[in-house]
Design brief:
heterodimer, A: mainly beta, B: 115 residues, mainly beta, 4-stranded antiparallel beta sheet, 12 strands
Chain lengths: 114, 115
Amino acid sequence: DAEITQSPRHKITETGRQVTLACHQTWNHNNMFWYRQDLGHGLRLIHYSYGVQDTNKGEVSDGYSVSRSNTEDLPLTLESAASSQTSVYFCASSPGSSGANVLTFGAGSRLTVL
Amino acid sequence: AQKVTQAQTEISVVEKEDVTLDCVYETRDTTYYLFWYKQPPSGELVFLIRRNSFDEQNEISGRYSWNFQKSTSSFNFTITASQVVDSAVYFCALSVSYNTDKLIFGTGTRLQVFP
């Protein structure tokens, strides 16, 4: 069965370190998204991609970067982790080219920055 | 700009009570889509329903029903005869047709159903 997987599921790191969260989907979806979830804020869009070599900034992109070198993967990198980036991160994907598609979400990655 | 407001931060009910979760949205676009997702204590996000802006028919699925009213920009979710398993955080979300599946989420409503 097709799926979307995130790794690691839990990570603790220190301020200033670089961290990469992986997202891999086997749906062959064109669109991929990264959201962060924080109490009182719901889910907020960090970055998104509509296809290979395409990346776009979302609402809260400062301090994060992504790259899309193939259809299956959209890794999220925190160049220099900050305590404000402690959060639960969700990756999602959708087929493409419509506002009507249902996003399929990964199980989430909980990141703690000490 | 688009926005989704879920004014109810937390709701507590006793099993078998009916409960309505409110969702108010803002958009100037005429074509848009509204969604509800459920996040149980295990943390995953579960899709519940999608509704497009041209279809104001209410929908019922078992104990769940949705009331879409363009006149008040609301897309409310009612659970009839609530059960403990309904305890979760519920998110309302909006996407507009030209933004290709980008979802704008509300802040969520935590529902606790007590036995």
